[in-house]
């Protein structure tokens, strides 16, 4: 098996190199916009200018690059035989649509977070959203990340919120409340609230709170090392090789039964 890494010289890209090697499969190469930062990569690791050329020499491409590259990457990979493991967050509706179109041609595993723990938190959040009435239990999601993070709320927080909304049978965009400030008035019944904190070098912290007048239930996840994302992505790559075209999730990779 051959795995290629888009953005191989990035922070997650270098962890992916180590995890691919630890998995005992072949590193086919990677793409980079900063070839001058290639020091430290395996000596025989080829670098490519574009993702289509990389896909031609591998079975799976792992992509943690940037939302701005998703449409072009989706178009390029749809014309190849390589599966796509996509961990880029903060996608627009158009960018998400391009992922869906690519999945008509190749197997795609798309996840906001490749941590098994976060995947289970999302599953539990959906179950709790379904079981705890929105008229009684207020749902709030609080996340904190390092100071360099550019999007808020985080993709993981939004994915958890989407899980709650799915459990409640509502459209997240219709009930989402983010960044409350000033005289906002009382909390809307059924709202799903988001709060984003930034500071230091925190890898990722997410709390999902369901609060009624009588009790509070909290789901919490703390990532201590971003390697967990690379480990999960390689696990997804090993799983998706040879799968039929379609859009898959980390729940599929973990073998969780459908709800």
TrEMBL record:
Its EC number is 1.17.1.8. It catalyses: (S)-2,3,4,5-tetrahydrodipicolinate + NADP(+) + H2O = (2S,4S)-4-hydroxy-2,3,4,5-tetrahydrodipicolinate + NADPH + H(+); (S)-2,3,4,5-tetrahydrodipicolinate + NAD(+) + H2O = (2S,4S)-4-hydroxy-2,3,4,5-tetrahydrodipicolinate + NADH + H(+). (S)-2,3,4,5-tetrahydrodipicolinate binds at residues 146, 155-156. It is found in: Cytoplasm. It is an enzyme of class 1 (oxidoreductase). Signal peptide: none annotated. The keyword Amino-acid biosynthesis applies. The keyword Ligase does not apply. Pathway: Amino-acid biosynthesis; L-lysine biosynthesis via DAP pathway; (S)-tetrahydrodipicolinate from L-aspartate: step 4/4. Keywords: Amino-acid biosynthesis, Cytoplasm, Diaminopimelate biosynthesis, Lysine biosynthesis, NAD, NADP, Oxidoreductase. It holds the Pfam family DapB_C. One of its GO terms (biological process) is lysine biosynthetic process via diaminopimelate. GO terms for cellular component: cytoplasm. Gene3D superfamilies: Dihydrodipicolinate Reductase, domain 2 (3.30.360.10), NAD(P)-binding Rossmann-like Domain (3.40.50.720). The active site is at residues 145, 149. Residues 117-254 form the Dihydrodipicolinate reductase C-terminal domain. GO terms for molecular function: 4-hydroxy-tetrahydrodipicolinate reductase; NAD binding; NADP binding; oxidoreductase activity, acting on CH or CH2 groups, NAD or NADP as acceptor. Its main location: cytoplasm. Catalyzes the conversion of 4-hydroxy-tetrahydrodipicolinate (HTPA) to tetrahydrodipicolinate. Belongs to the DapB family. HAMAP family: DapB. NCBIfam families: dapB. Homotetramer. This is 4-hydroxy-tetrahydrodipicolinate reductase.
